[in-house]
């Protein structure tokens, strides 16, 4: 979907109301619909948002793998590896939505696989690293990449 000037004009007329989602440890948590409208109307395509989101989640996954490698305790390392795995799933999901050819998804998967392997080798005991590696998702085939 390409955003044209009509979308931008309509967005300025849209009434928005934010929703507060207060949590005990995050009291200021709330939606920002106005910012979302501005973002949607400033992008040339929704796919751009998906690609940027994929890269943001990829960055979080890489950071979590790095934190896992430097954590002082095994339990903390494992927690960071688990977070990284969750972030990696988000990165793959948004990358798949970003381009129909699967090029971004393939690149994201390649970067994630290398980071995950390095993290597992450096953070987990050998037996656990082997088990975790065998549970890793298989690389996507060409047909799978094209099915997104």
Number of domains: 2
Helix percent reads over 70%
Enumerate how many helices there are, as a single number.
7
Structural class: mainly alpha
| Assembly annotation | single chain
Strand content: under 5%
Give the uncertain stretches in residue-range form. Answer: none
Largest sheet: none
Mean model confidence by pLDDT: 80
SSE run: HHHHHHH
Beta strand count? 0
Shape: flat
Instruction: Return Rg in Å.
Output: 19 Å
Distance between the termini: 17 Å
Task: Give a structural overview.
The protein is flat, with a radius of gyration of 19 Å. With 148 residues, the chain is mainly alpha-helical. The chain contains 7 helices and no strands. The longest helix is centred in the middle third of the chain and has 25 residues. It folds into 2 domains: 44 residues, no CATH class; 101 residues.
Properties at a glance:
148 residues; mainly alpha; 2 domains; 7 helices; 0% strand
How are the SSEs placed, and which strands pair?
Elements: H1 5-13, H2 33-42, H3 46-70, H4 74-98, H5 103-123, H6 126-134, H7 142-146
Outline of this structure?
With 148 residues, the chain is mainly alpha-helical.
